[in-house]
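Discussion board: Methods & Data

I've been asked by a reviewer to show the raw model output for two of the constructs in my manuscript, not just the figures. I'm not sure how much to include, so I'm pasting the format here to get opinions. Each protein appears as its amino acid sequence followed by a line of discrete structure tokens. Is this the kind of thing reviewers expect to see in a supplement, or should I convert it first? Here is construct A:
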Amino acid sequence: MYAFTYERPATQADALKLVQGGGQPLAGGQTLLGSMKLRLAAPEQLVDLGAIKELSGIRREAGDIVIGAMTRHADVAESAEVQAAIPALARLAGGIGDKQVRAMGTLGGSVVNNDPAADYPAALLALGATVHTTGRKIKADDFFLGLFSTALEPGELVTAISFPVPKRAAYVKFPQPASLFALIGVFVAQFDDAVRVAVTGAGNGVFRHPAMEAALGQNFSPDALAGVTTDEALASSDLHGSSAYRAHLVGMMAQRAVAQALS
């Protein structure tokens, strides 16, 4: 590690001033602290958001489930409100990492980090969520820009995320055994007027699958996806799996997600 200053503001306003002054927001620290140890990140000031009560919590608002950015994964997984309205989201949160990660990691931290194999981005994209920041509201379709990149501007903080409640939904992933990140994860959500399918783990970032959405819009069943393929160009190859393997897994995970949503 190296020298840096540490601030722990008690209000969102104080945190925003520090961040706009160049401070690095610290949510759960599951990625940032490891990156600092490896010298991949070198902030001069850390702004710990953990003491800001207004950034945590889960509530129902105008038909949506609204979750504060600093809400821990474990709290999302155990929330009776989330379990009743969007059980797929609760199950997703309960499958992130291990108990230690779920006890510290936050919804906002995961979304802003936008790891290409993270689980939450698939939920936001498939559910058509809205990211609330200190200055605006950003649709999930416009928020994720690729590998570790989002539409968030410097000095801007995510405060909450609102999730529309679907008719039915499910998330299924093929986890990488060591990290439990998604080698491939597919989130399927059916609404009254549309079906949305989001894929994580395949390549440089989360993306929607229009062909699957069209097929499921006509017939919401696993069989509807039997002839739908995924372009290998959308998937990456590494020591965990080839692009062809990942593309194949997309179809398998999608069919399982639809079956789970119908069960």
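Construct B, same format:
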Amino acid sequence: MQTEMKKMNNMIPLTIANTLDQSTKKRVEVAANQTVKEAVIHHNPTALATFDVYDGEGKLVSNEHAAHHRDATLYVGVEKVIGGGVPRQRLGELQIEYPSIQPVKQWTDRKEAKMLLVRFPSNGRTRSGFWEVVIHCPNASSALMHAYVLNFNEITLTPSVSLFANPPSVGYAKGASNGFIPGSSTTQGHWVCHGRIEPHLQRLGKDPVVRVGAYINHIQN
């Protein structure tokens, strides 16, 4: 009897909700020493294959123990992407290879740049002799990035890579913007088809400078 009472006292009541549909809630009791995510695995009210758990203020609590959240309502949502742009203090490393590279103001804060502008020779394929390209890299250390040619109206010879005003429906174009560069309704850009670059970037590890440098090298060759 004492063992059963002790076990009951160690059970933590929680309400688990779906961030996408907060009418979907489930009241459960879970072991105090379980992490919140472990508890939710057994009581997940969503169809998400991968997920994270957040408290009522939006704080990530997936790896916290259930004991810290007695009687709380916790929310199951999409997995938090850990990453960021290129640290501003490391832009100089990219400028060694690409001297023209600059952060795009509206995508840059005090710590990092999530979009970069770079110019490199077009080998006679544009009137100016250069490509002007923006690289959208909001999660440069972990996710796929995308490039857009700004001076596509200067093209005189067929580029060595395919350019699209509207990216095709393929996996490696996921997240690409149509017609305009991300975050803008006025600046047009043609998406650069980078092919299946993501596995190569993943093999390079998590260093954002290494990954962005490799990406630029890939699209210009």
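Answer (T.O., handling editor elsewhere):
This is acceptable in a supplement if you add a one-line summary per construct. For B, something like: The longest helix spans residues 208-220.
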